[in-house]
Amino acid sequence: MIPVEVLESLAADMVDYQKTGLSLVEVSHRGAVYGEVHLETIALIRELMSVPESYSILLLGGGATLQFSMLPMNLLPAGKSADYINSGAWAHKAINEAGKVGEVNVIYDGANENYMNLPDPKSIKPTPDAAYLHITSNETIGGLQWKSFPEFQGVPMVADMSSDILSRPIDIGKFGLIYAGAQKNLGPAGVSIVIIRNELLSESPKNLGSYLSYSAHAKANSLYNTPPVFPIWGMKLVLENIKRLGGAGAVARANTQKAAKLYETIDSSGGFYRCPVNKSVRSDMNVVWRLQNETLEADFLEKSTNAGLMGLKGHRSVGGCRASIYNALTEENVDSLIEFMADFSVKNG
Ligand SMILES: Cc1ncc(COP(=O)(O)O)c(C=O)c1O
């Protein structure tokens, strides 16, 4: 979801952007009007995520999927290997793509526990001399989330934060690089954020195609080519909204409360609903559950859709049910779902 006030603001300003006589999506990306939006967006990310000056913030196209390839193209030189933690469907994709570029070590494989658990962060020890260690902070399909992050010296930690970026405060200093598609928590699809420690920029190979080079984008402050103007504008409005709400801490408190209520409904249903994910790593963003009687799931999904509760079908690769309760989804929205679930279990239990 995108906050309704953001959608209204986009609509109001679409034709005549702040009385400039032109739409923001038709002015030059090198002009002052867009330039201000671009710089303010980057400044808001820096402020809300407490990104130190020793990191660059890049706004890129291509989705998080491009980052699966761009990351190893920049940071995984021949002769070195990169560590990956396989925590589910998205980590698996990141691993596959990195394997096309260089050598990958899977140092933890969640497939062994059917992707219902994550490793203890304290147990994570990177391969000496690994180029980086990659984690997926929130598995969108499986419904798992790292509650605290591994800490180690020497090897940069990289995180795909596509589905929990700015949902909670993060200590950026622990990471060498963070990437995320904006479309879950931060705005319309079409822009990705990369936050990279400046010292890693010198790793980008000189012969890499320019668009693929972190260093080229950092040097141009993400204006190497025409940036995705519309999603950046939408993201700026979402970031302003997060700031008004009190920042990452306030958003995190609301998210934890929403998720706790929903898990409580599942756990107290006497087995009618069940969440297969280990309690200590259940996601505050994507709550997954099954019905004890799986043949009732189709009925549950049809009736919930009819009741105006949209998008509760689990990902096609795993089935079941999933509520994606990103930042903009309100506690009242979650309450409506809980009410529906309670009613459905009484009628069908
Ligand atoms: C954790 C995670 N990583 C990567 C992606 C891929 O993102 P994109 O569609 O922006 O390429 C997604 C999309 O849902 C995701 O949830």
Please explain how this structure is put together:
This protein has 349 residues and is of the alpha/beta class. It is built from 9 helices and 12 strands. The chain has helices at residues 4-13, 32-48, 63-75, 89-101, 214-219, 229-245, 247-267, 297-306, 331-348; strands spanning 55-60, 81-86, 103-109, 133-136, 138-139, 144-145, 157-160, 177-181, 192-197, 273-274, 286-291, 321-324. Helix 1 crosses helix 6 and helix 6 (229-245) crosses helix 7. Bound molecules: pyridoxal-5'-phosphate. Pyridoxal-5'-phosphate (PLP) binds next to helix 3.
Question: Which compounds are bound in this model?
Answer: pyridoxal-5'-phosphate
Report the sheet-strand fraction.
15-25%
- Overall body shape: globular
Low-confidence spans: pLDDT under 50, at least 5 residues?
Answer: none
Order of strands side by side in the largest beta sheet?
1-9-8-7-4-2-3
Helix-and-strand structural type: alpha/beta
Share of helix, binned: 25-40%
> Helix-strand pattern, N to C?
HHEHEHEEEEEEEHHHEEHEH
Mean pLDDT: 97
Distance between the termini: 31 Å
Tally of individual helices:
9
Oligomer: single chain
List how many beta strands DSSP finds: 12
Q: How many strands, what sense, and barrel or not for the largest sheet? A: 7 strands, mixed
Cα radius of gyration in angstroms: 21 Å
List its salient traits.
single chain; 349 residues; alpha/beta; seven-stranded mixed beta sheet; three-stranded antiparallel beta sheet; 36% helix; binds pyridoxal-5'-phosphate
Task: Please write out the topology.
Elements: H1 4-13, H2 32-48, E1 55-60, H3 63-75, E2 81-86, H4 89-101, E3 103-109, E4 133-136, E5 138-139, E6 144-145, E7 157-160, E8 177-181, E9 192-197, H5 214-219, H6 229-245, H7 247-267, E10 273-274, E11 286-291, H8 297-306, E12 321-324, H9 331-348
Parallel strand pairs: 2-3, 2-4, 4-7, 7-8
Antiparallel strand pairs: 1-9, 5-6, 8-9, 10-11, 11-12
Bound molecules: pyridoxal-5'-phosphate.
Pyridoxal-5'-phosphate is lined by residues 63-65, 90, 136, 140, 160, 162-163, 181.
